[in-house]
Amino acid sequence: MRYVDIAVIVVYLIGITWFGAQFKEKQTSLKNYFLGGRNTPWWAIGFSIVSAETSTLTVIGTPALAFYGNFGFLQVVFGYLLARIVITFLFLPHYFKGELYTAYELMQRRFGLKLRRLTAGTFLLLRALAEGVRVFAISIVISIVLGTGEIASIVVIVCLTLFYTFEGGMTAVIWTDVVQMFLYVGGAIVSLFVILNQIPGGWAEVAQKAGDAAKFQVFDFRLEWTMEFFSRQYSFWAGVLGGCFLTTASHGTEQLMVQRLLSAKTEGEARKALFASWFVILFQFTLFLTIGVILWVYYGNSGLQPPKPADRIYPQFIWNSLPVGVAGLVIAAILAAAMSNLSAALNSLASTTIMDFYKLGYPDREESHYLRLAKRSTLLWGAILFGIGVAARSVSSVLEAGLGIASILYGALLGVFLVGVLTKRVGERAAMVGMATGIAVNLYVKFGTPIAWTWYVLIGTSVTAGVAVLASMVMKERDGVNAHG
Questions:
Q1: How far from each other are the two terminal CA atoms of the chain, in whole angstroms?
Q2: d(CA 411, CA 413)
Q3: CA-to-CA distance for 154 and 165, rounded, in angstroms?
Q4: I need a surface site. Which of 10, 271, 320, 395 has the fewest CB within 10 A?
Q5: Class of domain 3-396
Q6: Residue 222 CB neighbours (<10 A)
Q7: With 90 as the cut, is the pLDDT of residue 41 above it?
Q8: Using CB atoms within 10 A of its CB, is residue 231 exposed (0-12), middle (13-18) or buried (19+)?
Q9: Residue 147 to residues 152, 153, 287, 386, Cα–Cα distance (Å)
Q10: What is the mean pLDDT of residues 241-263?
Q11: At a CB cut-off of 8 Å and minimum separation 6, what does 152 contact?
């Protein structure tokens, strides 16, 4: 047992849990618990968006993509920028009309109560499944460090994250996100230089070998209308279009991200946070892909067999090969990414449960009653995510599994939101038919075709919006609840 490294990890876990719990006294209302009182600076929200976009999947899964492939994943990241432009013009103005707590209140304002509940329920299912895979990814790291079973590893992180999220609400989530983001990016930078130092010839050697093998290739502009084209995950077209639709859905319609934007003081501050976060995301993915390429050269030169599955390559190298103390710091950094994402998911799941379901059914209770139930809901979702994390142990690539699960449902959410803000003709029943059809088609695409996950959101969005518009013509209904007038 490497006691110095384990001590570093334990100090981090205790420290971040204590730090998050310090925001307990500010949690006196739902506005504070779910929106941080709407007085958080834009730069902190921007870093929090980055942390919410990042998870253990990113930290351990991205180097594996470059190890066995190239820099093609960055094509998806360029799509993230296009998405932020779309969100700024289409969704932000609607979110800052009145005082919204969740994204799905906009659906009630535009369509009606049934669609609000349907979209909110879709989010709960989506986030629970996707976050469950991320929870399992945490266990990969801890089991390498401690040699513990995966289930015991999941228990440790879920319980610690639950504690400060339960106590500190959204304020704790955002400020621990800021600390954790600097920790995991700093840890990755340290590990990059340490790994590079173990390769004779250093960066020049990496650049030559990786360059000869086209490891730094970013763009794949091949365009042909074949099934092979649609099964390639990281072509330019799949990456940019897929990344754009994926992020427009996640940042524009999913409570996990919208909750952060709603925590900003003004629409302008939310916009600044959104765009600033992209530059950090671009740097971050480039950093982790570079680490993957350096590890590829390292294993190629040493003749050692990389560990299987691919998601173990980076964390196992850290633990086995980095100097004492440094390994503990980097592992703590990976756990930081995991905890920041999990805390965000817990708070957003709780906010949707209370605001979009419970409070609608029992609207006249005291604020203290809702706040008490919000905390209990946080505990309940912690238990559910633990269960899904245990069940997710059979997945192969945790990064692609997480993105794939989310993408199935994102298309239906984005499609109905676009119909809501871009049309006045489509009513609630037609929108619900569109959503159901979009989800059904994406399930078929996922399990019945070789089409890559990068196309799922685009397909689901197109089907949902198209069917909703057609259904409105057949039903000849006009929405009774109109948000545009």
A1: 66
A2: 5
A3: 16
A4: 320
A5: mainly alpha
A6: 11
A7: yes
A8: middle
A9: 10, 9, 28, 19
A10: 88
A11: none
Q: What is the dihedral of CA 446, 450, 452, 455, to 10 degrees?
A: -70
Sequence-distant (6+) residues with CB within 8 A of 193 are: none
Are residues 385 and 345 in contact, defined by beta-carbon separation less than 8 angstroms?
yes
Cβ(295)–Cβ(210) below 8 Å = no
Task: Give every CB contact of residue 485 below 8 A, 6+ residues apart in sequence.
Answer: none
Q: What is the DSSP string of 403-472?
A: HHHHHHHHHHHHHHHHHHHH-SS--HHHHHHHHHHHHHHHHHHHHHS---GGGHHHHHHHHHHHHHHHHH
Nearest one of 315, 337, 314, 324 to 157, comparing CA atoms: 337
Cα–Cα distance between 95 and 113 in angstroms, integer?
Answer: 17
Assigned token pair, 228: 């092979």
- In order of 58, 365, 415, the CA distances from 54 in angstroms are 6, 37, 24
Cα atoms in the 13 Å half-sphere on the side-chain side of 41: 5
| DSSP 8-class letter at 481 | S
Structure tokens at 392: 């997710």
The token pair at 426 is: 């489509």
- C-alpha 368/C-alpha 195 separation (Å) is 52
Q: What percent of the chain has pLDDT over 70?
A: 91
Q: What is the rounded distance in angstroms from the CA atom of residue 381 to the CA atom of residue 223? A: 43
- Summarised one tens digit per residue, pLDDT across range 158-215 is 888 888 888 778 888 888 888 888 888 888 898 898 889 888 888 999 999 988 998 9
The C-alpha torsion from 86 through 232 and 447 to 81, rounded to 10°, is -20
Distance CA 60, CA 311 (A): 6
Q: How far is CA 225 from the centre of its chain?
A: 31
Tens digits of residue pLDDT in 89-103 = 999 999 998 778 888
Question: How far apart are alpha carbons 183 and 177 in whole angstroms?
Answer: 10
Confirm if 157 and 338 have CB atoms less than 8 A apart: yes
Please write the tens of the pLDDT for every residue from 364-403. 888 889 888 988 999 999 999 888 877 766 655 555 566 6
Which is more confidently placed, 354 or 478? 354
**CB–CB of 121/306 below 8 Å?**
no
Cis peptide before 363 (omega within 30 of 0): no
Domain ranges of the chain: 3-396
**Nearest of 299, 83, 60 to residue 184 by alpha carbon:** 60
State the chain's mean pLDDT as an integer: 84
* Six token digits for residue 232: 């390639």
